[in-house]
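User: I'll paste a sequence; please echo it back and then give the predicted structure.

Assistant: Echoing your sequence first, then the prediction.
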Amino acid sequence: MSTFTEVINYAYPNARIKAMQSFLIPEKLLRAMTEARSVENLISHFEQTSYRDEFRELESIDSITIERALLKNLVSTYEKMLKISPEKAIPVLNCISREYEIMLIKDILTAKIESDVDENELKERSFMLSDKIKVILPRIIEARSIEETINSFNRTEYRDVLKRGYESYLETNNTMSFSIALDEYYFSQLWRSTKNIKDRDGEITHKFIGIQCDVINIMTLLRSKFQKFDVKKFIIPLDYNLKHYIDPCIKAENITEIVSILGKTPYGKIISDSITEADKKNPLLKVELNLKRYIAKVAKSYLVGYPFHIGTILGFLRLKEIEIKNLRAITVCIENELNPDEIRDMLV
């Protein structure tokens, strides 16, 4: 693609992204939020942000209503980006936007297993679902067991992946089985969506999505040693930085061996340093956080320098998602009375 065509395709999106980027929460304000003494006190900080309209509409204040307001803002951001992006970027953006439908499906399955379904809250969050899934939402809500819930998805694209997740759940009795299966499905679809993007945009998309898929595969490999599931079923099939390391990791006896094998990859130092710092109660949390921080660093790099490429869109959206995940984490941590240092340690 010529430079002139790139400029034509991305001039308007870049102008809009630059404006939206200016509303991302600065580090100083984020730090102040971690020091809020209560959720009510935290709300006052949102008056200085682009989330203020959603928060003014809240009838009650707690972590659930705050999370819902944040997610509404994110869905609205996706809708704006789909309207202003070049046509060739639409398939990958459509695929990325499904992350939040999948997140809600994970929550539904966990709630069904724990017999803790909040029917009203599911209806309130239906804005996260595609029209096809909204149609079956009443059937999902009425399902009396996890088996019935999974069968509700029989005529959807999620049928096979949920059945694989259920098989693993029966073997491990761990609800993470569904989360891992859905992550593998989502990122496999996302990886495939990059195949038809060419030239500079293709290189950027391939790299950025490839890194995210690698991170999911790394976490799946590490979790498999704790939760004892058949990891081969849940590895995203792609040829990126882990191409020659997946099989040796699957055969590894323990986490120490996996860390050693992955030491030869671009993620090696991040993983080994994180394992050294890890909390014994949750040894993989630090690894996941630091890998996500690496993704954030890559996203930021696309927003500096030459701007006429798909990286400005992908980078901004990832930073927006990270911001919302951080705000959700801050809210839950404050509600659970964690101190500011503990909260900051949980942020990407």
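Residues 1-86+307-348 form a domain with the Topoisomerase I; Chain A, domain 4 fold (CATH 1.10.132.50). The chain has two domains: 1-86+307-348, 100-266.
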